[in-house]
Amino acid sequence: MRCFAIDLDGTLLNKEHRISEGNQVAIKKRQAQGDVVTIVTGRAAFDARRILAQHGLNCPVIGANGAEIEVEQGRQYFLNRSSSRTIWEIIRSTNVFIHIYLQDKILLPQFSFTALQGGDRAFQEAIQAQLTQYGVEEVDEIAIDQLDVIKFMFVSPDRWRLEHLEQQLLQLKICSVTRSGAYNLEAMANGVTKGTALQDIARAYRMTPEDIIAIGDNQNDLPMFEVAGTSIAMGNAETSVIGRATYLTSDHDEDGVAEALNGLERWEQKKEEQHGEHLGYR
After folding, report:
1. DSSP assignment of the chain, as one string?
2. 50-107 confidence digits (pLDDT tens)
3. Is 81-188 in the same CATH topology as 3-75+193-273?
4. All structural domains of the chain with their residue ranges
5. What is the pLDDT of residues 25-34, one digit of tens each?
6. What does the pLDDT look like over 231-278, one tens digit per residue?
């Protein structure tokens, strides 16, 4: 038995935010063979479950970059309220669009919508995708001290502003920080990553790292690559992600996940025939 840990956006989902028929068939085939296919995403777990259900798929889910683990009894890692308060004080004056991930919804403070002005077409398309997520709720007031926050996400067309905010948060050492795209920054409880969640999955299924295959496209997937015995980057992945992968598959709009699920053993055999040399591409 092997475990395939698969990212959603930019990986399993195509540009229309759908799971293609080819990817659906490949996942069900692996499951029928006794393998575990786990979705590991920055999205809220409830949002990921909805997407899977819409496509007739049933998979364990790791949400919010590892802060939500829906295996066995399930586990959630919340930011402590002191950390949430400190982060809140910083971002209220930073002019970024704010998402506050809770257990059952995502709060969007209305005052932060001003940060959405400007930006190129790619930025505006990314924003539209975020605003149509399941469970989003616009709110006037936030009592941050009364909320159990799973994740903060900050969005801006100004990359320098995000980089500056990232450095501020890293220096405070009160949260784990990552990125899943050029225009966003995400903060979870200290020590939480997709990689730490994968370690929990491995223990739950009594697997070794060599049994785990991680598939992803962005920086928040790199902790998975560090834990998994095999890592596969999408054809549309960032250069830094491709450079850390064992294999490279096709674009997320070209059924790259199905190509990986269907072709992995063949790639492994080819790699072995070349005496363990890193193939780079299939």
Report:
1. --EEEE-IIIIIB-TTS-B-HHHHHHHHHHHHTT-EEEEE-SS-HHHHHHHHHHTT----EEEGGGTEEESTT-EE-PPPHHHHHHHHHHHTTT--EEEEE-SS-EEEEGGGGGGGSS--HHHHHHHHHHHTSTTEEEES---GGG---SEEEEE-S-HHHHHHHHHHHHHHTSSEEE-SSTTEEEEESTT--HHHHHHHHHHHTT--GGGEEEEE-SGGGHHHHHHSSEEEE-TTS-HHHHTT-SEE---TTTTHHHHHHHHHHHHHHHHHHTTT---S--
2. 999 999 999 999 999 999 999 877 899 999 999 999 999 999 989 999 999 999 999 9
3. no
4. 3-75+193-273, 81-188
5. 999 999 999 9
6. 999 999 999 999 999 999 999 999 999 999 999 999 999 888 775 444
Provide the CATH topology of domain 81-188: 3.30.1240
- Superfamily name with CATH number, domain 3-75+193-273: HAD superfamily/HAD-like (3.40.50.1000)
pLDDT tens-place string over residues 174-204: 999 999 988 999 999 999 999 999 999 999 9
Q: Of 66, 62, 27, 36, which is closest to residue 47 (Cα–Cα)? A: 62
